[in-house]
Amino acid sequence: MTEREAQVSRRKRAKGALQRPYPELQKQLEKPSGQSATTSKQLQKEIAEFQKAAGDTRRLAAIVRDSNDAVMLLDFEGNVLAWNRGAENMYGWSEAEALQRNIRETVPEQKSQEALAFAEDLAAGKTVESFETQRVTKDGRVLEVWSAITLLRDEEGRPTAIAATERDITERKRAEADTRRLATIVRDSNDAVMLLDFEGNVLAWNRGAENEYP
Prior knowledge:
The chain is of the alpha+beta class. The protein has three domains: 3-63; 67-168, PAS domain (Beta-Lactamase), CATH 3.30.450; 174-212, no CATH class. It contains eight helices and seven strands; from the N terminus they run αααββαααβββαββα. It has a five-stranded antiparallel sheet. Strand 4 and strand 5 form a beta hairpin. It is elongated.
């Protein structure tokens, strides 16, 4: 038995032990010395390990649930299996509504082929890097989002679902576009526009300055 298989076996035994009626479990833990006592100590250790893992899982679940980012769990057909608070706030569908929907409903038509290609890459076992894309909200608005998708596997390595995390970057993209427009206006202005440091060294010099100070 490999170390991984041994760990899986121990987790299953510990989980099974926790599911037994309390009196039966207590009786086993109070068995007399010898081999039974050794078994009891091993069982106590395994229960402690399982309880710690369960606690870690609950903490992680709370972080995901309350994240401002949209976090979704999808099956391989795109049906929504889990939908956190961030997804509710970002896209407008409640968790109950989202669980009746397919993620394709949030993908704009012009991005459908992109989404399909990413899904095929995941199914083929390829890693998909984070990417910028667009999503449609319940009220029809189009958001610019930063998306990360991951293939989830069980303890035997078999694919089980797709986890997606998406962040709304619409305002950031709008600010970047405004900055670019302003930069273009300044660059092409007939007025001389210069950027200087505190020692008077020129850091930027537009066309107006070139024309005025040839």
